[in-house]
Description:
The complex is a heterodimer of chains A (592) and B (378).
Chain A: H1 20-57, H2 62-66, H3 71-94, H4 104-112, H5 120-135, H6 143-160, H7 165-184, H8 187-199, H9 204-224, H10 241-273, H11 282-296, H12 305-311, H13 319-338, H14 346-366, H15 374-390, H16 393-404, H17 407-427, H18 432-439, H19 448-455, E1 467-469, H20 475-485, E2 489-493, E3 499-504, H21 505-513, H22 538-545, E4 552-557, E5 563-569, H23 570-589
Parallel strand pairs in A: 1-2
Antiparallel strand pairs in A: 2-3, 4-5
Chain B: H1 2-23, E1 37-41, H2 44-62, E2 66-70, H3 76-84, E3 91-95, H4 96-104, H5 125-128, E4 138-151, E5 176-179, H6 185-191, H7 200-204, H8 207-218, E6 223-226, H9 231-237, E7 243-247, H10 248-257, E8 262-277, H11 285-295, H12 298-305, E9 311-312, H13 315-320, E10 346-347, H14 350-369
Parallel strand pairs in B: 1-2, 1-3, 5-6, 5-7, 8-10
Antiparallel strand pairs in B: 3-8, 4-7, 4-8, 4-9
Amino acid sequence: MAGEPETTRANDPEHPTQGARGMVRFLGLVVLGALIGGLAALSAVGFVSAVLWLNDVLLISPRGRMMFAHPEALAIATVLVPTLGGLVVGQLHRAIRERRPHTPADVIAAVQTRRGRLPARAGVLSALSGLVSLGAGASVGQYGPLVHLGASLGSIGAKLLRLGRSDDNVAIACGVAAAIATAFHAPLAGIVFAHEVVLRHYALRAFAPVAAAAIVGHVIATNVLSSGTLFHVTDTAVPRPWEFAAFIVIGGLGALVAGAYMHAILAVGRWAGRLPVVPSLRPALAGAALGLVALWVPDILGMGQETLRFATIEGAFGGLELIIVMVLKLAATALCIGMGFGGGVFSPALVIGTLFGALCGTLIGDAGLAGDTFVFYAVCGMVAVTAPVIGAPLTSLLIVFELTGSYVLTTAALASVTLASPIAAQLFGRSLFDIQLARRGLDLSAGRGRALLQNARLKHLLSQDCVTLNPHDSVDDAVTALGNGGHGEAYLVDDKGRYRSSVTLADLEVMRGRNQGQRQVRDCPRTPRPVLGPEASVWDAMHQLQDVTGEAIAVVDDKAGDAFLGVVYEASIARAYLQYSEELRREEHGTG
Amino acid sequence: MARVDHIMRRACAGALLGLTIMLAPSTHGDEATAEPLTVLSWGGAYERAQQRALFDPFTEATGIPVEVQQYDGGIVELRQAVAEGDVTWDLIDMTRSQAKAACAENLLEPLSPELLAPAPDGTPAARDFVDGALNRCSITHSVFATVVAYRRDAFPGRRPTEIADLFDQERFPGPRALQRTPAVNLEWALLSYGVPREEIYRLLSTRRGLSLAFKRIDSLENLHWWEAGDAPVRLLAEGEVVMASGYNGRFFDAMINRDLPIEILWDGQVQEHETWALPRGAAHPDAAREFIRFATSSERQAALARLIPYGPSRRSATLQVTTHPDSGVDMRLHIPTHPLNAERAITKDDDWYARSHTRINDYFRDALLDERENSDSP
């Protein structure tokens, strides 16, 4: 539920004044951003190191597997580890209110509806679930849990400092930016991701703290995490002009792969709901299936960093092999996430996309067309699949740029993303997160203003200050009551507290004029008037107003036998609408 | 806890001994009475350099004579000696991978980093030593490297600059010689695909990575496999091959002392650590610890690196390396750890090899050696 609009005061902490005081406050926010960035970066470093360690110890990573001498025990571990990991994850999720791990989608929802205040308990448990899932080799990504962890830390920090919701949102964005900056060694991508995916605006007020967080994250990453960059590309080959056309086409096809990937995840989720298995045991089931297939194709275990690297090397996979590994990786990820493992969707998308790009490169190479540009195809495929999945074309491009330092490669990726993002957005939705949120009832496709109003509940606008009449009251009494109350409308509520209808003073006066003053008000002609449910949003109310001429709308709980709860005045609906819009405007266009 | 107490006691005793020595330089005269320290080392030019830079100065400073015995590596004799309770050496110069294996078998005494001297500028030893130098039972004193050397006259107008050139027989035609082991060859083969060095061992852990590496090595025409350490220099000298892998010390010797027209390609050099280790049950552990402190000081490390081209394990010592005292050759250009040479160095992953070498050897033999049995070096 969205928070209530905050009352406007002259020195409202939410709406800082200009000048020296505003600047000090703004600088404070920047310092807070840097602090949150440091915290988020350190936890990201801890998380990544723990996953690597678990993978080595639990015989998931190729290194751990190669250093282990007993092939039979290794095969048993391959099946057993993901299964047991699934069991643990299932139990962890039972302790979360929603019975599922929280993901970046929850972060986006909290920020877009200005609700903020991410729950600490669910944050910790989700991070733990991601850690166990990744450690046990589930085919999921690490960036989702890292983003959520960073966001939770930011929100907790804002809560401890008793900051307002706008600052809470900025703090969340800071945590997100630092997590991405640390995990990818890419501060620019971190900043843009926080704006592009989480905040969805570029206000200077948010930019400076987010940038501070990303820089701190980057500094920590370069000093603590010595390795772990995603790809180095040393090639300096330049693609021929026609190849850019190929990159654009790869973008279009990649959008379809991204769509298949997203819908596979959603479909497995729906299908899992119908399985006759307790939800907490479903991840274990997925783990067992994953382990069995991994005996044949170990590439699908874990995040797949080695597979990603090989996909950028020409000749590491045959054409058929690329298809098999790509399809299996897609299926394994859909199975793991759909069945309830905790973890992100980004790293598997990177692998699937790179395999897809490598497939395109192999086909073009087999046709004798391409030169030394294999890695360009791999990267184009990667961007074409990942950008639509996370709904972040700019971030994907920046990741390529910051990780390779190659301008030519970034231009190629740009060609690919120009077609990938719009096609996927038209066919499937802005991102997997947005699709998931839409299915949970939060539609972000029409922008933040509407989502905010759709999530803002009417309850706090509810007023008891109205005239209620018993249907058996006389018209004369009704007119007197309305006159005393100073209202033009009254609501008929029967002995059991049920709402019957509403009458206007005008209609009652007409009856009295016809000497019908002794008749009961229920005989009064009624104008059909819409009512609102207690869970109705400000957005619904605004829509009802278009058809209503009157001073207020009755709020009726139809689940409790049409119980009359009160009324919402038109004036307060309009005021709430203006206030929400004003807050958004301040948050998104404020400078400090 | 018992072990910690033990270490503490040893360390205190060592420090006390050091103090006594420092306070009483007159022990110099009592040489005959001090019991000699027996060091097991590798012989040859290496031992001569150690004699000059480490053993003689140690005796001079402490009055403890040093006796040297030679071996060719391996821990079989050590294992036997410890089992029989008849350890005749006080100190062993061993590779880090063997020291780790011996440590795991409980054949070595633990060594505390506390016993090491700080750098001349006061930097604590733990920060002055290169990464991975301080292990539970061994302390790295030098870093040596396996590198590629090529004949200067083989490729008129161009010279190899990166390790991928080893496999590029179009631009750099001619026979090659590689060591008949998977180690180093696999690393170079994957590097030639543009794989970053941090990922080498992770990728070599997959079947796909191994087969890519084998494919690269298998693509070499006219390949000689060498086994004895002096073979690469001989093959290059005789013109049998134009590029060969080998130990940097041997190539240095051939270039400087024998004036062979060869050059070292430092790109992709694979570094290994040479360490000091104390065998369990040695007769003079305190004197041995005192020796380690002496021999790993920045000054002594730099003195050793001026005689043989092995990189000091201390950053402060690397900076002090200058010219060879006799020939005047600038030794900085020849040690593996010099920043210019170490730009794209790989540190051999001892743990990975220690635990996977049987399988890797099998894969290597199956993929490359069977069909090439006859092309062995003469």
